[in-house]
Design goal:
- The protein has helices at 14-25, 75-87, 110-113, 129-138, 163-177, 209-222, 257-265, 284-287, 318-334, and strands at residues 4-9, 30-37, 45-48, 51-54, 56-57, 68-71, 91-94, 123-125, 147-156, 196-197, 228-235, 242-250, 270-272, 293-300, 307-314.
- By secondary structure, the chain is α/β, with parallel strands linked by helices.
- The protein folds into two domains: 4-126 and 321-334, NAD(P)-binding Rossmann-like Domain (Rossmann fold, 3-Layer(aba) Sandwich), CATH 3.40.50; 131-316, 2-Layer Sandwich (Dihydrodipicolinate Reductase, domain 2), CATH 3.30.360.
- A seven-stranded mixed β-sheet has the order 10-11-9-12-15-14-13. Strands 5-2-1-6-7-8 form a six-stranded parallel β-sheet, sandwiched between helices.
- Helix 1 (14-25) crosses helix 9 (318-334) and helix 4 packs across helix 6.
Length: 335
């Protein structure tokens, strides 16, 4: 691939920093790098491939010479500035929720529906992190039988709420161990040694925004608008990597466990971790910092002959965000 000018919007955030690591790790064809952020962060300096790059303020004019723009600064920033990047001719890969459910744009997880990446389409939202990690475990099972329903509980890490929440978890943990109270500032409840329902608004159906995103986005990515999904999303005191308990209900009798293991083992981006003898299954500590989604704890549901149970862990900052975005851009540039 020929070198391209790359912009990272929200460069100082947790996901923005993962982009810089991934560009180097994957040898992404960065010819020139522009780091864009708020006026408050402008002037900060980062080292990339041995050179110092200074953060510039985010403006519409900043996209004038950009070929690929990665956005990770929230939905309002994406709605405000993505049109300027598109008008300048850039490919826009957006980690916010701003465009995910827009019927005119695809919602792509490259291992699952990468064929939807086209040269004439230059706006690609990145799906919700919990939805991506869920579907990396579920999508490989589609050819084993028709999936009728998913029942999911998530165990979501601090990284999903950004660098400030990660720092709050560290600070509160130190405070509690020192006999001091855990004072919430970023999240609404004490986080250290605690867990609570995902900190997003509850809708008229009683589901929080995170749960609703998983439902809607999963249906769109799989191309299954009528798929039945029930989701409960919970924050747990883990720094990074989300985990999920998943029950996959099929329309008919569930496939054999060995068939499920085979399908998962063969699927790109999935690593099977399913050691019953050693009681070793996916853990966020082992999923943190790696590209693959760990899937295991595979077993028939003894209460339902049509169901298989799984457990998975995936790095929210990588496959759940920055890595998925870079994979989309790589596919696009290869076209």
């Amino acid at each position: 691939m020929s070198p391209v000018t790359v912009a990272v919007v929200g460069a100082t955030g947790a996901v923005g920093q993962e982009f810089l690591k991934l560009f180097e790790k994957r040898d992404f064809p960065v010819g020139k790098l522009k780091l864009l952020a708020s006026e408050r962060s402008a002037g900060k300096e980062y080292t990339f491939r041995g050179e110092t790059v200074t953060v510039e303020p985010l403006t519409a004019a900043a996209f004038a010479d950009v070929d690929v723009a990665f956005f990770s600064a929230g939905a309002s920033r994406s709605r405000e500035f993505a049109p300027a990047a598109l008008a300048a001719g850039a490919l826009v890969v957006d980690n916010s929720s701003a465009f995910r459910m827009d019927s005119t744009v695809p919602l792509v997880v490259p291992e699952i529906n990468g064929e939807q990446i086209r040269k004439d389409q230059r706006l690609y939202p990145v799906a919700n992190c919990s939805a991506i990690i869920l579907l990396m475990a579920v999508a490989p099972l589609r050819h084993l039988g028709r999936i009728d329903r998913l029942v999911v509980s998530t165990y979501q890490s601090a990284s999903g709420a950004g660098a400030a929440a990660m720092q709050e978890l560290e600070d509160q943990t130190r405070a509690v161990l020192a006999g001091e109270p855990a004072v919430p500032k970023v999240l609404p409840h004490p986080y250290a040694f605690n867990l609570f329902s995902h900190n997003t608004a509850i809708n008229e159906h009683g589901y929080n925004e995170e749960e609703w995103k998983v439902i809607e986005e999963s249906r769109k990515i799989l191309g299954m608008p009528s798929l039945k999904i029930n989701v409960t999303c919970v924050r747990v005191p883990v720094l990074r990597a989300h985990s999920e308990s998943i029950t996959v209900e099929f329309a008919e009798e569930a496939p054999a466990e060995e068939a499920v293991r085979g399908a998962l083992s063969a699927f790109p981006g999935v690593r099977l971790v399913d050691d019953r003898v050693g009681n070793h299954f996916p853990m966020p500590a082992e999923a943190s910092g790696i590209d693959e989604v760990l899937v295991g704890r595979i077993r028939r549901d003894v209460s339902n002959p049509n169901a298989i149970c799984l457990f998975c862990s995936g790095d929210q900052l990588l496959k759940g965000a920055a890595l998925n975005a870079v994979q989309i851009a790589e596919r696009f540039l290869e076209l």
